[in-house]
Amino acid sequence: MLGNLRYMSERIGTWPPEVEPVTAPEPEDGPQITYAECRKCGTQIAGLDGRYSCGVCGWVNHHSEGHRPLPTAAEDPDMQNRLA
């Protein structure tokens, strides 16, 4: 038991190195999950940036009703990997 106490007392004086805290991403960094009521059947639905589709009745709102503009093809990271 005395060996354990000595080991513990040696470790008490040593602290792990300080690291920079990780900051949470800004909410504006990517798409936000938003919620609304389906305009056709009233079901509570979730979407991205105000763009919704209802899995119950099939209603879909127009893409222009979103909270921010959609990226262009040049801004889309998935398009950069396609062969021309």
Describe the structure using short key phrases:
84 residues, elongated, little secondary structure, two-stranded antiparallel ribbon, 13% helix, 12% strand, single chain
Could you state the order of secondary-structure elements as H and E?
A: HEE
**What is the end-to-end distance?**
71 Å
Question: In which range does the helix fraction lie?
Answer: 10-25%
Please state the structural category: little secondary structure
Oligomer: single chain
Strand order of the largest sheet: 1-2
Strand residue percentage: 5-15%
Number of strands: 2
Q: Unreliable segments (pLDDT under 50, ≥5 consecutive)?
A: none
Taking the sheet with the most strands, its summary is:
2 strands, antiparallel
Mean pLDDT: 78
Model description:
The protein is mostly loops and 84 residues long. It contains one helix and two strands; from the N terminus they run αββ. It has a domain of 44 residues. It is 13% helix and 12% strand. A hairpin with a 6-residue loop joins strand 1 and strand 2. The N and C termini lie far apart (71 Å).
Please render the helix and strand layout as text:
Elements: H1 2-12, E1 33-37, E2 44-48
Antiparallel strand pairs: 1-2
